[in-house]
Design brief:
Layout: E1 5-13, E2 25-32, E3 43-52, E4 59-68, E5 74-79, E6 83-86, E7 99-106, E8 114-120, E9 138-141, E10 144-147, E11 152-154, E12 163-167, E13 172-176, E14 187-191, E15 204-208, E16 216-221, E17 228-232, E18 239-244, E19 250-252, E20 261-263, E21 280-286, E22 289-296, E23 304-307, E24 316-320, E25 323-328, E26 334-336, E27 347-349, H1 380-390, H2 399-405, H3 409-456
Amino acid sequence: MKKLFLTVTALLCALILYTQPPQAFKYQAVVRDNSGEILQNQAVGIRISIHDITSGGTIIYQETFNETTNQFGLVNLDIGTGVPTIGTFASIDWSANSKFIETEVDPSGGSTYVSVGISELQSVPYALYSDRSKDAPWENSGNDIYYDNGNVGIGTSSPVYKLQVADPTIGGYVESGVSTDDAAGAIAAYSSTFPAPFTHFAGRVSLWSSAFTATGLDLRADGSSSDIRFYSGGLFPVNERMRITSAGNVGIGITYPSSKCHIRQSSNEILRLESESLNGWTSFYNSNGYIGYIGTYSGDFDLDVGTGSSNINGKLNLVIRGIPRIIINEIGNVGIGTADLASGYLLSVDGKVACEEVLVEYSGSWPDYVFKEGYNLPKIAELEDYIQSTGHLPDMPSARDVEENGFQLADMQKRLLVKVEELTLYTIEQDKLIKKLSQEIDQLNKEVIRINSKDIH
């Protein structure tokens, strides 16, 4: 078998990434035969092995390549990208022990490999692992890194918690991971005057500016109810200002909120909504979309309560004891005591209306024409015949019509006035007739007296 000479010219780290360690490094070699001749443009088989601890140590990773030399006999490999036969490149622990690389070649391009050299890897690819980190107590666990030997301090040389951050220039501390004999999962931040360590609650985040006196913030995920609580006003006594329950309800001024937003206040003003402009409103939506709003929109001092312009079918209801008592429909008609609004009328009332006065503004002709010359006043005999046949006056609705359809107030007033004016005309005619008959009676009485006086003489 031909003796081979493999000249390694460079080893370089490649694929340098910031989110994970590089998973390959460059390897370049010149392949010659036993006469020292460069093998130009020839297919060769190459096997790379990584030995642990010593040159004869356990092979922890091995891969093969099928490459072709160029006109200078060069082959360029990205070690870590070949066909693995033993282990995985990503699983190599570069932080533990020395590593040796062995190169084997088959000049015929097959898999009958001949070892041509083995050497220890020095600084490359140890960019995968900082040389200083070999002495650190941090450990790898798969994709995780952990520290399991005491507490971690940043800005302090004597941390008393799993993580403690201190900055003397601003007088603040951050604690984390309080031991189980105190409370698990608590985080606290406080000034240098705060008495640390102090009692925490499980799952609690505390932010205090100083001990006991200044304001602070305490977010507590309680272990039993999983509530998040907000406190202020110093440590002793603490004043709960707001709570978010495990059901997602928010309580302000109340410990156990029963709705998504539950506010309780001892003063008169419970909630204030203030706009920096003249217009401002609170909008209401449901699963169908935008419904309406409460706010200021129509004028500087007006309060609007109603549906939005896009809600073409929505009504505004005034509800008492769960029942709509006053309804304003989508076109502005009003119903009182009824949801069945009469078509064409602005107001529908089911029930009695009591008032001191009603003003009816009538735009039609008023029946003064009854007193004008040429008015066709029905004859009494004709009127009698009509009443006998219909049971009501002419131009007046029957009792059945009123029962079924009601009547128009202004129209009825007009019709009644016509009848009153016609009755007035009848009365005037009767008065004239009575006066005429009275004169005739007087004349007859005089004649009777005259005749009787002749008979006596």
